[in-house]
UniProtKB/TrEMBL annotation:
This is L-lactate dehydrogenase complex protein LldG. Pfam families: LUD_dom. Residues 85-183 form the LUD domain. It comes from Nonomuraea jabiensis. InterPro entries: FTHF_cligase-like_sf, LUD_dom, NagB/RpiA_transferase-like.
């Protein structure tokens, strides 16, 4: 018997016959936020992302302005026409999202329609994400409730960044160096 097996056997013997104990979990599952769009925009900005809060009617023009001169990957299901690039030649990607979290400034992709594949959202140096106001929730528990755990999830909190041993910030190592977010109200 290995040491691991011996330890597990001792634990099993010690708890054998013990009553099951209900551990109360009183997690906060919802919270009230007065200006959920404003809070999300503020938190995304804190992560050094470029943020625009616009009426829905102005979003197409802002997208045109943001992608002008860039070769963009446009995932299946994103409602957009134009001359777009493949992953090998792309300067950037444009996506929608599954949900956005105001409290943390996090965007979650479940790679459904309009959200692209993980490679499409991590390889290009620029990511433009269009978030509808109705996709923004106050906190993480509300976001989890909207997501399907069987889907691949990518959680984005600002542009990709890391620090070297001297704490110098380096952006774009594990994903896009630039994150631009258009919030459609």
């Amino acid at each position: 018997m290995s040491a691991r097996e011996e330890i597990l056997a001792r634990i099993g013997k010690a708890v054998s016959g013990a009553a099951d104990v209900e551990i109360p979990r009183h997690y906060r599952t919802a919270q009230q936020v007065e200006d959920i769009v404003g809070l999300f925009a503020e938190r995304v900005d804190d992560y050094r992302a470029i943020v625009h809060v616009l009426p829905a009617a102005e979003v197409p023009a802002k997208i045109d302005e943001a992608v002008a001169g860039r070769r963009m990957v446009v995932p299946d299901g994103f409602d957009r026409e134009g001359g777009w690039a493949d992953l090998d030649t792309a300067d950037g990607v444009i996506t929608s999202c599954a949900v956005a979290i105001a409290e943390t400034g996090t965007i979650v992709l479940d790679h459904g329609p309009g959200q692209g594949t993980r490679a499409q959202t991590l390889v290009p140096d620029y990511h433009l994400c269009v978030v509808r106001a109705d996709q923004i929730v106050a906190g993480v528990p509300e976001a989890i409730a909207r997501l399907d755990p069987a889907r691949p999830l990518t959680w984005i909190s600002g542009p990709s960044a890391t620090s070297d041993i001297e704490l110098n910030r380096v952006e774009g190592v594990h994903g896009p160096r630039t994150l631009e977010v258009i919030i459609s109200t």
